[in-house]
Amino acid sequence: MAQGLLLWSLCHFHSQSLGFLPFTPHITYKNTPPPPRSLSLSISATLESANDTTQELSARERRRLRNERRESKGGANWREQVEERLLKKPKKRYASWTEELNLDTLATLGPQWWVVRVTRVRQQETAELIARLLARNFPDLPFKVYVPAVQVKRRLKNGSISVKPKHLFPGCVFLNCVMNKDIHDFIRECDGVGGFVGSKVGNTKKQINKPRPVDEIDMEAVFKQAKEEQEKHEKEFAEEQQQEGNLDFGKSRSSVEPQLDSNSTTKSATDSKPKRQSTKKSPKLVPGSTVRVVSGMFAEFEGSLKKINRKTGQATVGFMIFGKESLVDVNVNEIVAETN
């Protein structure tokens, strides 16, 4: 009996409705020659999509469509956004890192305020040393040395008043001048100077601490702070003196009252009045007179008074430093005329 295999399919649906090709089962018997090969069917299908339409477009048309989509999504012109970003992007200040390390480029900024780091213990002495050395070695260089400090007044036990400066920025000296490499290296070599306040510039090959100037707004804030602190201290010192005067007056009155009687009332009252002390008038400040600085950066310096302005309270004094006269602007309250 011949055995055979039946190849069948469970596809009972209409081939036309589902889009399948018709399937015809056939029976293969054992020991029978295979049926002749039939012609193979080649099926080709073309799927149309939206991508085919875009591929057919030219590069200019695709660019136009892309720009339209960007404008519709962003709500604004994307070209304007790109231009704004390019404008905000900072441009390179120096062409190369060697030009950035050149300290002579600081002279193009003109006179600026710089911060010099000094020792806290000898801050006032170091500031005076810098001023003297700059006046000696750079006579044509206009400069200003400023140490923000409050002149603290205290009454000692013997009745005298001591004045000592209290620095607002310990370890910092403000210098106003035109900076270049020669001046920078000269100040760095002064005794007690630790360098300038700045920032690191350069690349991995070489880096230096380049001085950074202080803005005018920040310097005005420093001047304002020093003035307010000085006025506050003077007000507190005046209040303390007034309180001490009231206490002294109360003590003297309590010591005198038990000794009073009906017959010596007027006598004790006259004795308790303080006697006027004879005060000698100090000589007037006149241009050409010899003056001495009692406080400030140039304390205990003697010089010749060149100019005085009562309205602004500033005076110009000429000091002899290393055999050369240097003009310095000081406060009128800080100088006293010397008697001949």
TrEMBL record:
Signal peptide: 1-19
Region (Disordered): 50-78, 228-288
CDD domains: KOW_NusG (cd06091), NGN_plant (cd09890)
Compositionally biased spans, kind Basic and acidic residues: 228-238
PANTHER family in alphabetical order: KOW MOTIF FAMILY PROTEIN, EXPRESSED, RHO-INTERACTING TRANSCRIPTION TERMINATION FACTOR NUSG
Pfam families associated with the record: NusG
Domain NusG-like N-terminal: 110-226
Name assigned to this protein: NusG-like N-terminal domain-containing protein
Coiled coil spans: none
Taxonomic path: Eukaryota, Viridiplantae, Streptophyta, Embryophyta, Tracheophyta
Keyword Transcription: yes
Keywords assigned: Signal, Transcription, Transcription antitermination, Transcription regulation
Polar residues bias (residue ranges): 252-271
Keyword Signal on entry: yes
Organism per entry: Ficus carica
GO biological process: DNA-templated transcription elongation; transcription antitermination
